[in-house]
TrEMBL record, chain A:
InterPro entries the UniProt entry points to: Ald_Oxase/Xan_DH_a/b, Ald_Oxase/Xan_DH_a/b_sf, Ald_Oxase/xanthine_DH-like, AldOxase/xan_DH_MoCoBD1, AldOxase/xan_DH_MoCoBD2, AldOxase/xan_DH_Mopterin-bd_sf
UniProt-recorded name of the protein: Xanthine dehydrogenase YagR molybdenum-binding subunit
Residue span, Aldehyde oxidase/xanthine dehydrogenase a/b hammerhead domain: 37-140
Alphabetized Pfam families for the sequence: Ald_Xan_dh_C, MoCoBD_1, MoCoBD_2
GO molecular function, one term: iron ion binding
PANTHER family given in the database record: ALDEHYDE OXIDOREDUCTASE MOLYBDENUM-BINDING SUBUNIT PAOC, XANTHINE DEHYDROGENASE
From TrEMBL, chain B:
InterPro entries: 2Fe-2S-bd, 2Fe-2S-bd_dom_sf, 2Fe-2S_ferredoxin-like_sf, 2Fe-2S_ferredoxin-type, 2Fe2S_fd_BS, Aldehyde_Oxdr_Iron-Sulfur, Beta-grasp_dom_sf
UniProt keyword annotation of NADP present: no
Organism: Palleronia pelagia
Origin: domain of life: Bacteria
Record GO terms (molecular function): 2 iron, 2 sulfur cluster binding; metal ion binding; oxidoreductase activity, acting on the aldehyde or oxo group of donors
Pfam families: Fer2, Fer2_2
Name the UniProt record assigns to this protein: Xanthine dehydrogenase YagT iron-sulfur-binding subunit
Record lineage: Bacteria, Pseudomonadati, Pseudomonadota, Alphaproteobacteria, Rhodobacterales
Length: 725, 176
């Protein structure tokens, strides 16, 4: 049976009535022992009988056509083949469900996958790929840099009111240009695929976030029926958007395996990951704020310039949070996407907010400085009653609480005027930024099975990319069924299991969690019937059912397992309420008065994301956001060669993700909240919320420390040092 | 080429292509996939293992350079049902998310304890000849060769601090 819920109406808080007490509390991940002993298998670690190894070949020119000269390598030891058929230009975009561009012999960027070389061993394949002769014909009309764009396409975003007028009426205005460099997800596990055919049927172990969509993408790229594709990804070594869409290694492995009649494994090199997988676009952003004498916004504007390859169905939604975070009658947006010959742009953790909130929250800091209003007070004054563009009401929105309670916990009252706090050769300062991330519920299904022995099984094709899915789905089932979570087994990452939302857009926990909730709810109804009580009166605790005047262990109520499918779909509450997670980030930094080097001493995040399903894994998600905030603020920048688009720093030595010593003390607090509109479990996404605004808190703290405003990210010493007092 | 390695206490003979890294011998030839490959260039630390007691990046070393050496990988520390103190502390403190950098973090911390015990200074040590302080800053500095993109650093540091004594750290702890 399927328990289906379309989220058309606010649902009761059933999870506040159940009495097992295993939800929300911190609970170590059940798969932890496998991870810390190296026994959790990731995609590249599966084996198949007779497996060969493939290595991707990348385009060495920016634009043109190519032909591989197979004869140049045929005699090399271990050689099995070079395959170019069906090669995809780059990874698919999230939730695309169709093939990424397949270009034949055309090259549109340097680093594009053009072939897969297959040999008996990795060492052989790597060397063959290195010497494979490729004949190129180069075009001379590549455009690789913003400065080379002659015609920026117009934006079709409508204005609201008249921002120019508001700017001239305003007492205080901000009109600033910000720039951000491209970012790479840099998940620690490089993408990998092991493809094995059995007749027409393909089984592929992949490093993927959204198996349901990925299956369609693989099938469409290969020109086969999705029914013939099974994807497996029980463990994924981080995603952050880079594994939302199927990656080129999947197609390379599948094509080669089919041609050779044996399993083929392809693992992307770290350089490949920086080129063949989507990057976050560079942005230019113009921020305008117009405020009256009390700091109330009369209008705001956020226009952006960015780039992508042709025909990519994705643009960085830079202004996503700006639409609903603050009030102001007059609003202008603009989005201009140029076509550049650089690797494809796509989702990297918190697409939109990760860079859009840097600029917006820096501009708010500028406004606070100009108007002499405390940055927290300024934000509180501008929290709108209704959505300022659609007039729709908000669901749970604890932004004010996050700002005020966070400020108290952080010691915001000790913040001094900019440039006035000094310790030895260090300027010290504090900064704040709001956090906001649109909340999304996605269709999702899961099977829940309760066994007479008091164990349970949860099954869905959902992934755990480090996000805590194994833990929280087990906790939800355990809470609903009155079991110790240790008695619940969670099976994930297999397209033979019911199709889930997948991991992306921070929707996984609430969407997949709701499907498990619904499946378990159906089981509760069955148990109530058997016990002879109303389901409202049913209590399940520690394997015992109580209701009416009856009390029976589960084993007495069941002689066979009960399996129910839960199926959640978004509905009317999505229209009736504007849903988002909110929060506030605080940072204290030290800026070296001699070198301009920045150290983040401590950060605090006050987060409101509805019901928190596991305080420990949620805290880890927010730590991740805070640290990514440090990276975006201070170190992360892809440098493209302006002549060729080449990712110059295409490895982990030159693309600087934060390391342990870059990170000061981190504190995370959650504002207790239920979001009734979000889902039947009242939870919202947290993983991207933790990043939204985090970097801006750091750069605002830099300003407070030393009076230098960062307009061009990241705030490396060379961007601070020349402006120091 | 024929070489013999002592891996997690057992002698293992392998016949390998001389281009094979120590990491790939583990992952491709000995079915020990606990050591991870994040970059293959000595940039991430995911492949950290102990060679004759010292931590190294397995991806930066050719296996043929290690004939006769004693190697400890993550599989040599504990089993899922019988975790070493440090492994248990990683689970308790959520010192990971995706788990991909985790074996490297744990092996690196093992090597680091020993470096403390031997009195090795680091970049953040105030006095290069004094016994190093087991402080948070020292741990962070010495663990900065192990990237964690999930950014579990707070949990990683906590796990390392919590299990230090059980793991045999003899260096004094910093007066906080
Ligand atoms: S894989 Fe060896 S350091 Fe990254
Ligand atoms: S746990 Fe994912 S990279 Fe460290």
């Amino acid at each position: 049976m399927t328990e289906h819920l379309k989220m058309d109406q606010v649902q009761p808080h059933l999870l506040d009535e159940t009495g097992q007490g295993v939800l929300s509390v911190p609970m170590p991940r059940p798969e932890g022992p496998l991870k810390v002993t190296g026994r959790a298998p990731y995609a590249a670690e599966y084996k198949a009988e007779g497996m060969a190894t493939g290595v991707m070949v990348r385009a060495a020119i920016t634009k043109g056509t190519y032909a591989v000269d197979t004869a140049s390598v045929e005699d090399m030891p271990g050689y099995l083949g070079v395959f170019t058929d069906k090669m995809v230009r780059n990874a698919a975009q999230g939730t695309m469900g169709t093939n990424p561009a397949q270009m034949g012999d055309k090259i549109l960027y340097l680093g594009q996958p053009i072939a897969v070389v297959v040999a008996e061993t990795f060492e052989q394949a790597r060397d063959i790929a290195a010497v494979l002769k490729v004949d190129y014909t180069e075009d001379d009309d590549a455009v690789c840099d913003f400065d080379g764009v002659s015609d920026w396409p117009d934006s079709d975003k409508p204005d609201q009111g008249d921002l120019d007028q508001a700017m001239s009426d305003a007492t205080f205005t901000v009109d600033s240009m910000y720039t951000t460099k491209p970012h790479n997800s840099a998940a620690m596990e490089p993408h990998a695929a092991l493809a094995e055919w059995d007749g027409d049927k393909l089984t592929l172990h992949g490093s993927l976030q959204m198996l349901g969509y990925n299956r369609d993408e693989v099938a469409d790229s290969l020109g086969i029926d999705a029914k013939n594709v099974r994807l497996l990804a029980p463990y994924v070594g981080g995603g952050f958007g880079s594994k939302l869409g199927m990656s080129p290694d999947c197609v390379g492995a599948a094509v080669a395996a089919k041609a050779l009649g044996r399993p083929v494994r392809v693992v992307l090199s770290r350089n490949n990951v920086f080129e063949m997988i989507v990057l976050r676009t560079a942005t230019r952003q113009r921020l305008r704020l117009a405020a009256d004498k009390d700091g109330k916004l009369l209008g705001l504007g956020q226009e952006n310039w960015q780039s992508n390859l042709p025909d990519e169905p994705m643009a960085e939604p830079v202004d996503l949070a700006t639409h609903f975070l603050y009030g102001g009658e007059n609003r202008r947006y603009g989005q201009h996407v140029a076509i550049l010959n650089r690797p494809a742009s796509g989702s990297v953790r918190a697409p939109g907010e990760a860079v859009g909130m840097l600029a917006l929250e820096n501009a708010m800091d500028e406004l606070a400085e100009k108007s002499g209003i405390d940055p927290i007070e300024l934000r509180l004054r501008n929290i709108p009653e209704k959505h300022p563009e659609t007039g729709v009401q908000y669901s749970a929105r604890s932004l004010a609480e996050a700002l005020t309670e966070g400020a108290k916990a952080f010691g915001w009252d000790k913040r001094q005027k900019a440039g006035t706090r000094r310790e030895g050769e260090w300027y010290i300062g504090m900064g704040v930024a709001s956090a906001a991330r649109t909340n999304i519920l996605m269709e999702s299904r899961a099977n829940v099975t309760l066994n007479p022995d008091g164990t349970a099984l949860v099954q869905t094709d959902m992934t755990d990319i480090g996000t805590g899915t194994y833990a929280i789905l087990g906790q939800i089932a355990a809470e609903m069924l009155g079991l110790d979570p240790q008695k619940v087994t969670v099976e994930l990452g297999d397209t033979d299991l019911p199709k889930s939302s997948g991991s992306g857009g921070s929707w996984g926990a609430a969407s997949a969690g709701s499907s498990v909730f619904l499946g378990a709810k159906a089981i509760r109804r069955k148990l109530a019937e058997r016990l002879g009580c109303d389901v409202e009166a049913l209590r399940l605790q520690d394997g015992v059912a109580t209701g009416g005047n009856n009390r029976r262990p589960l084993a007495e109520l069941m002689d066979a397992p009960i399996t129910e499918e839960g199926h959640i779909e978004p509905g009317q509450t999505d229209e009736d309420f504007h849903q988002a997670g909110y929060g506030a980030h605080f940072a204290e930094v030290a800026v070296n008065a001699v070198t301009g080097e920045v150290r983040v001493r401590r950060m605090l995040a006050a987060m409101a994301a509805g019901r928190i399903l596991n305080h420990q894994t949620a805290t880890s998600q927010v730590w991740g956001g805070q640290i990514w905030g440090i990276g975006t603020a201070l170190t992360e920048a892809i440098e493209h060669d302006p002549r060729t688009g080449h990712v110059v720093n295409n490895d982990l030595a030159e693309y600087h993700v934060p390391v342990n010593l870059d990170v000061g003390d981190l504190e995370v607090m959650f504002i207790d909240e239920r979001d009734d509109a979000s889902s039947p479990i009242q939870a919202k996404g947290i993983g991207e919320l933790g990043l939204s605004g985090a970097g801006a808190a750091v750069t605002n703290a830099i300003y407070n420390a030393c009076g230098v405003r960062v307009y061009d990210y990241p705030a490396t010493p060379d961007r601070i040092f020349p402006h120091l007092p | 080429m024929q070489i013999t390695l002592t891996v997690n206490g057992a002698a293992r003979e392998v016949d390998i292509d001389p281009r094979t890294t120590l990491l790939d011998v583990m992952r491709h030839h000995l079915d020990l996939t606990g050591s991870k490959k994040g970059c293959d260039h000595g940039q991430c630390g995911a492949c950290t293992m102990l060679v004759n007691g010292r931590r190294i990046n397995g991806c930066l070393s050719l296996a043929v350079m290690h004939d006769g050496d004693e190697i400890t990988t993550i599989e040599g520390l504990g089993d899922p049902g019988n975790l070493s103190p440090l492994q248990a502390a990683f689970v308790r403190n959520d010192g990971y998310q995706c788990g991909y950098c985790t074996p490297g973090q744990i092996m690196s911390a093992k090597g680091m304890y020993d470096e403390f015990n031997k009195g090795w200074p680091s970049h953040v040590s105030d006095d290069l000849t004094a016994e190093p302080n087991f402080s948070t800053a020292e741990i962070k500095e010495r663990m900065s060769g192990n990237l964690c993109r999930c950014s579990a650093y707070p949990g990683i540091c906590k796990a390392i601090e919590e299990s230090a004594e059980e793991e045999g750290l003899t260096t004094r702890k910093a007066a906080e």
